[in-house]
Write a structure and sequence with these properties.
115 residues, alpha+beta, Alpha-Beta Plaits, four-stranded antiparallel sheet, 4 strands, globular
């Protein structure tokens, strides 16, 4: 059975824009190759961290929302741990209310962007 997941990960701020895009593409491809369905992805940009991580005070934040089998999460998290560009990550299983909220939030964002 497939479940819906949301992953937020932070890339080190020393990367160029192209290097960051390449890292994001690598993780997207890993999900697609593993049979996951990517529903949504967001680039939240460079943000200040709540506390220093590896002597860094900022990082590039990204969000993936996808549907996948459980074992795929382990593969994705192993890839995050092995990649030195990733300084933090968190994957959560989304319940039906979280999925509905995420959909509403995206619709509102699109409407605000048009206005």
């Amino acid at each position: 059975m497939t479940n819906r997941y949301e992953t937020v990960f932070i890339l080190t701020p020393v990367l160029s824009e192209d290097q960051a895009k390449e890292a994001v593409t690598k993780f997207k491809d890993l999900l697609k190759d593993g049979g996951a369905t990517l529903h949504h992805d967001e680039d939240w940009g460079l943000k200040k961290l709540a506390y220093p991580i590896q002597k860094k005070s900022t990082g590039f934040y990204y969000l993936f929302e996808f549907e996948s089998e459980g074992p795929m999460i382990n593969d994705l998290e192993v890839a995050f741990r092995r990649d030195e560009r990733v300084i933090r990550f968190l994957t959560v299983k989304m319940e039906k209310h979280a999925i509905a909220y995420a959909e509403k939030r995206r619709v509102r964002r699109k409407e605000n962007a048009k206005a």
